[in-house]
Amino acid sequence: MDKIVIKNLEVNARIGVTEAEQAQPQRLLITVELERELAESGRTDRKTSTTPYDVVVEMIQRIVTQRQWKLVEAVAHHVAEAILVQKMALAVTVEVKKFSIPRSEYVSVQIRRP
Fold it and tell me: In terms of Cα–Cα distance, which of 28, 35, 32 is closest to 80?
C-alpha cells in the first residue's frame, strides 16, 4: 500500500496526568502515515482524492488543542480515528512524541489502525 507521511508536525497541547503538567501547553511532535492508493495521482499528476495535506494538518491541530489530555495514547487514538472516519486513508499509523522525561530525548507512542 502507498503512503502519505506527515512527519513531526509540531502542536502545543495541554497534556499530562498531574496539574503541574497541565499548567502550560507542552510541545508534541506528531507523525502520521496514511495508507492509501496513490497510483492514479502518480500516473496523471492530478489530485484524485479528498486528502489535501493542509486538511489533515488542520484536523490534527484542532483535535489536539480542543481539550486537555492526560495520555499521549489518547491523542494518537483520536487522531487515527478521525482520519479513518473521514475516509482519508484505508489504514493509518500515528506516532505522538512528548518531551517530559528527564535525561531522555522523548517518550512516544505509536499506533496503527486498519
Answer: 32
Contact 32, 61 (CB under 8 A): no
Q: What is the pLDDT of residues 49-93, one digit of tens each?
A: 656 788 999 999 999 999 999 999 999 999 999 999 999 999 999
- What is the grid cell recorded at 12? 502545543
End-to-end Cα, the chain, rounded Å: 12
Cα distance between residue 69 and residue 56, in whole Å: 20
Domain residues of the chain, as ranges? 2-113
Helix and strand counts by DSSP (H, E) for the chain: 4, 4
Instruction: Copy the grid coordinates of residue 19.
Output: 496539574
pTM of the predicted structure, to 2 decimals: 0.89
For the chain, the 3-state helix, strand and coil shares in percent, each to the nearest 5, are 30, 35, 30
Architecture of the CATH domain 2-113: 2-Layer Sandwich (3.30)
